[in-house]
Amino acid sequence: MAISVPSTASSATPSHVAKADMRELNQARWHWFESQEQVPWEAWESLPGGTAYLDRRYLTAMAGHDKVQCRLGMIKADDGPWLGGILMQAVQSESRSPADHMDVSLGVRIATAIMQPGGRPFRFRTLVAGQGLASGEHTFRWREDITPAWQVKWTEEAFDVCARHWGIRVWMAKDFGPQLDADLAPHWSSRWARATFDPVMEVPLDPTWTSADQWQEALRTKARTKVRSILARSADVQLERITDNAELDRLGPELIALYDQVYGRASIVMGGLDSRDFSRLATQFGEDFTLVTYRNEDRLVGFHCGMHHADSETIEAYYVGFNPEINKERALYQRMLFEFIRWGISLKAKRVVMGRTALEIKSTLGAFPVPLSTFVHINLPLAMPFLRWMIRKAPPHSFKPRRAWRAEWCARWQEAGYQID
Question: I need a labelling partner for 39 at 20 to 30 A (CA). Which of 169, 327, 398, 399 fits?
């Protein structure tokens, strides 16, 4: 069952939008903002394509982050209107065990062993257009009349400028869903290689639901039984939403330690969190940020946090952490997924974006895989032929999603824009 959704940042030009003035496009140039105070936020927020990760609140919270450096770029002709904007990041990356997460060939295993002798992580800086700490279409925002060809041209210009600024040779333009990928793909120059990794998992919601019971009623009997089992196994775990900034800062080191037990097992790690991130996000987002702790016999054993973006009616599951042994016993991770869904229903959201890990587990709760494409370039001699060979020989693991929804709800999601084969 392959599923995709319409792009949330579609580059198709609506019929009511006039064509952009060619002279205005040819004279457009980038303006780069190194601090939050310099950004023309009103112009940025007026552009289409907003998401939680392109929201002023998130970008302000992440300013000064220890592991991720950000630059916002906006483009316009002199004395003209703003035409678009892009998020560029310099991220410290680590390649750890890609063979555990992709169907790699023997040749790739040998190459990986050479780059990572003794299994040691291979570290490198990455220039990212988009979001290094999350998955999804959080790359840029364009005025509605900007065509895919201009979007790609200006994105490539942004890479050239920021690569010189930061001195980074590994580039990633990420992530593009099926429709946006199809629109942009013909316009990338030959220096790029197209790659696909695991899909992002997404749970659609009916905004008329008023409780998680209604969501469960839309599931098949087997899926409802799974939910009841999750709730029963975690019934003795104490959940608490933490809103006090001082408490979030106090808990920060413990939360990061739990987060490292989960995120530390990833094959490729880009950036990461630090202990002050939680209070900064809470300060900026207020009620649109949630952090819930899990205690077993008064011992902190897990947490989850996420963001609500009202304009796109989306819940973004941000990061989680848990004790692996307690997780096996109490189904902490599945309970966290349930809590994200329940929170989304309480806020009348239309979807919960759950990231690109634990694909099968998420599908048992109604999450669908949405394929994403990334364009990669390495500015080193002979690097690109090797990279293209690696991409061919190391596709992501295939998996078969579980059938969680009743037939009538599968039809409903198909009518809403999901493709179900």
Answer: 169
Q: Residues spanned by CATH 3.40.630.30 within the chain?
A: 22-200+371-393, 201-370
pLDDT band at 328 (very low <50, low <70, confident <90, very high): very high
Q: Which residues contact 360 (CB under 8 A, 6 or more apart)?
A: 399, 400, 401, 402
CATH topology of domain 201-370: Aminopeptidase (3.40.630)
- Nearest Cα to 265, choosing from 100, 149, 125? 100
* CATH number attached to the domain at 22-200+371-393: 3.40.630.30
Residue-wise pLDDT tens digits, 62-99: 887 878 999 999 999 998 999 999 999 999 887 655 55
Q: Tell me the sheet residues that pair with 350.
A: none
For 338, residues 6+ apart whose C-beta sits below 8 A from its C-beta are 212, 227, 230, 231, 365
Inter-residue contact 300 to 287 (CB < 8 Å): no
- Residue 69 host element (H or E): strand 68-76
- Examine residue 175 and say whether the peptide bond preceding it is cis (omega within 30 degrees of 0): yes
> Taking the model in full, what pTM does it have?
0.89
Query: What is the residue whose two structure tokens read 């994105």?
Result: 155
